[in-house]
Amino acid sequence: TEPIEIPKAEKVKRPYLLPAPGLLAAGTTPKTKSAANELIVKAINDVFKEFDIQARVSDFQRGPTVSRYEVELAPGVKVEAVTRLTNNISYAVASNEVRILAPIPGKSAIGIEIPNTDREIVSLGDVLKSKSATGVQHPLTIGVGFQLDKIDNLPYLELLYSDIILSATSF
Q1: For a FRET experiment, which of 37, 72, 94, 165 has its CA 20 to 30 Å from that of 117?
Q2: How does pLDDT run across 68-102, given as a tens digit for each residue?
Q3: Do the Cβ atoms of 154 and 142 come closer than 8 Å?
Q4: Alpha helices per DSSP H over 103-153
Q5: What pLDDT, on the 0 to 100 scale, is given for residue 161?
Q6: What does pTM read for this prediction?
Q7: Taking the mean position of all CA atoms in its chain, how far away is CA 14?
Q8: C-alpha dist (Å) from residue 80 to 42, 86, 163
Q9: Pairing mode, if any, of strands 55-62 and 110-115?
Q10: Contacts of 141 (CB under 8 A, 6+ apart)
């Protein structure tokens, strides 16, 4: 038998188009607060009362995995009065992952970040359908998740190449 000659197809160069956002399913509606958040607010305020510190939790922002509790200090109360209670707050809320931001950037309040006991799942569809993601046309955009302030995390892979290489090589 003789070999059959197959003509080569000519490659057409077309720009890459991102898939339609409708292909990805939406996740569950995020919670703004839960009973667990209310218990933590009470526990933090109880620690302040126990150590006679004039401060209170004035508000909180719930994220998918971490909530930030905003603490207002009475006039004359030093920030160190709250920051030195990190271990006591950790004990009161039964978490060893308490992080204190003193102050919260852009606010005159102290932030106490504590992981949620009732974490939420963020779907890729939610990240890529967010306001800031819908205008992005970069082909190497990846959806990582949401930050605490509901700001989506959309880095470009080309900007992260050194981070990826360093983490892959353990440096």
Answers
A1: 72
A2: 999 999 999 999 999 999 999 999 999 999 999 88
A3: yes
A4: 124-128, 131-134
A5: 54
A6: 0.73
A7: 36
A8: 21, 10, 35
A9: unpaired
A10: 18, 133, 154, 155, 156, 157
Say how far apart CA 67 and CA 47 lie, in whole Å: 18
> d(Cα 127, Cα 21) in Å, to the nearest integer?
10
Give the Cα separation of 26 and 124 in Å (integer).
8
Torsion-angle region of 76 (φ positive above 0: left; ψ -120 to 50: alpha; else: beta): left
| Residues 6 or more apart in contact with residue 16 via CB below 8 angstroms | 139
Least Cα distance to 88 among 128, 142, 50, 130 occurs for 50
How many C-beta atoms lie closer than 10 Å to residue 63's C-beta? Answer: 20
Q: Which segments within 31-161 are labelled E, that is strand?
A: 55-62, 66-73, 99-101, 110-115, 145-146, 152-153
* CB distance 111 to 59 below 8 Å: no
Q: Is 151 left (phi over 0), alpha (psi -120 to 50) or beta?
A: beta
